[in-house]
């Protein structure tokens, strides 16, 4: 047993070394990618009106392709960036890309819909966040309201008073702000009404359990009822089936985001499928 224990330990330790090494290599690669913009891009996922299916806004989702690591999921490289101090330069680069994209659509004579950017905690709590956003609007000459934000509850924990101030400043800039992944984590319904947010995004875990599990619909009813009372826009994320969509029609749900109505796609496809068509 002792022998086995030692071997197990050794295997485990070797495994950790490899993993550590891979993380370090990835961190270096990510730093280079941010420096020269190589392999980093954004996909845009449509949020459509539940009933008319009209495009209402887009969510910008980061993508990273590296020749050695392949396509790395943001579920991996965003946490890596957060741990290694790269999230601020990365986010800055991505926000700039969003602003440039909006400017390109405007220059092409199209009417872009607002684009929502995911904020990570470090970014939200940065002293000059508001200044940065203001500077972007200025540099790209964007009309107000075209850049929106998504954040999660865990970012605001224990700092509600300060969070309210930052949120108010974002709202004063004309930005809409969504609470992302709502229903997971710390969901304290009681504090929600104190936050100057505009939108609730119901986490896809609830949406995907619809029809499979009675509890998920009960939660949907509760969340949407409350959101309606608070006059919040409600987004259902991760909608994949007609069945889920039909259930969502029974509740106060404004917007649909999911593979059913549109996967995340490169900006050019958004132009072709949505913006250029709308002009005709
Ligand atoms: P999120 O903000 O909750 O984004 C929604 C995720 O759900 C995206 O995954 C999207 O591709 C996926 N999704 C959308 N519709 C469906 C569907 O119908 N079914 C399924 N199964 N999935 C769907 P993605 O692009 O892999 O991003 C994962 C997470 O990484 C995001 O979750 C967000 O937390 C983070 N992230 C992505 N881009 C950025 C960014 O630019 N900045 C920051 N801070 N975080 C980002
Ligand atoms: Ca999001
Ligand atoms: Ca989400
Ligand atoms: Ca999420």
Helical run tally: 11
In sequence order, what are the helices and strands, one letter per element? HEEEHHEHHEHEHEHHEHEH
Q: What's the quaternary structure here?
A: single chain
Helix content: 40-55%
How would you describe this structure to a colleague?
The chain has 280 residues and is α/β, with parallel strands linked by helices. The chain contains 11 helices and 9 strands. It has an 8-stranded mixed β-barrel, surrounded by 5 helices. The radius of gyration is 21 Å and the shape is globular. Residues 1-7 have low confidence and may be disordered. Ligand C2E is lined by residues 45, 61-62, 73-75, 78, 94, 118, 120, 180-181, 204, 238-240, 257-259, 264.
Short description:
This is Diguanylate cyclase. Residues 23-278 form the EAL domain. With 280 residues, the chain is α/β, with parallel strands linked by helices.
List the helices and strands and how they pair.
Layout: H1 2-36, E1 40-49, E2 55-66, E3 70-72, H2 74-83, H3 87-107, E4 115-118, H4 121-124, H5 129-139, E5 147-151, H6 160-172, E6 177-182, H7 189-192, E7 199-202, H8 204-209, H9 214-229, E8 233-237, H10 242-248, E9 255-257, H11 267-279
Parallel strand pairs: 2-4, 4-5, 5-6, 6-7, 7-8, 8-9
Antiparallel strand pairs: 1-2, 1-9, 2-3
Bound molecules: ligand C2E and calcium ion (3 copies).
Residues 45, 61-62, 73-75, 78, 94, 118, 120, 180-181, 204, 238-240, 257-259, 264 line the site of ligand C2E.
């Amino acid at each position: 047993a002792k022998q086995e224990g030692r071997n197990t330990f050794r295997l485990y330790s070797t495994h950790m070394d490899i993993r550590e090494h891979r993380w370090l290599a990835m961190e270096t690669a990510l730093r280079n990618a941010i420096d020269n913009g190589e392999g980093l891009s954004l996909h845009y996922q449509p949020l459509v009106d539940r009933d008319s299916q009209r495009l209402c806004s887009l969510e910008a989702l980061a993508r990273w392709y590296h020749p050695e690591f392949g396509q790395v999921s943001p579920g991996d490289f965003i946490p890596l960036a957060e741990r290694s101090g790269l999230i601020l330069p990365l986010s800055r680069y991505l926000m700039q890309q969003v602003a440039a994209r909006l400017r390109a659509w405007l220059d092409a004579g199209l009417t872009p819909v607002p684009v929502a950017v995911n904020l990570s905690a470090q970014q939200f709590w940065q002293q000059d966040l508001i200044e940065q956003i203001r500077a972007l609007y200025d540099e790209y000459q964007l009309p107000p309201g075209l850049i929106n934000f998504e954040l999660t509850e865990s970012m605001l924990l224990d700092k509600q008073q300060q969070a309210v101030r930052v949120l108010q400043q974002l709202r004063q800039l004309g930005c809409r702000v969504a609470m992302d992944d709502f229903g997971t984590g710390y969901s304290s319904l009681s504090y929600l009404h104190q936050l100057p947010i505009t939108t609730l995004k119901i986490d896809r875990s609830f949406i995907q359990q619809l029809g499979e599990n009675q509890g998920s619909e009960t939660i949907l009813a509760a969340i949407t009822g409350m959101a309606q009372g608070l006059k919040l826009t409600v987004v259902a994320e991760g909608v994949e089936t007609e069945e889920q969509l039909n259930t969502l029609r029974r509740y106060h749900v404004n917007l649909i985001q999911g593979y059913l109505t549109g996967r995340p796609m490169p900006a050019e496809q958004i132009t072709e499928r949505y913006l250029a068509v709308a002009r005709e």
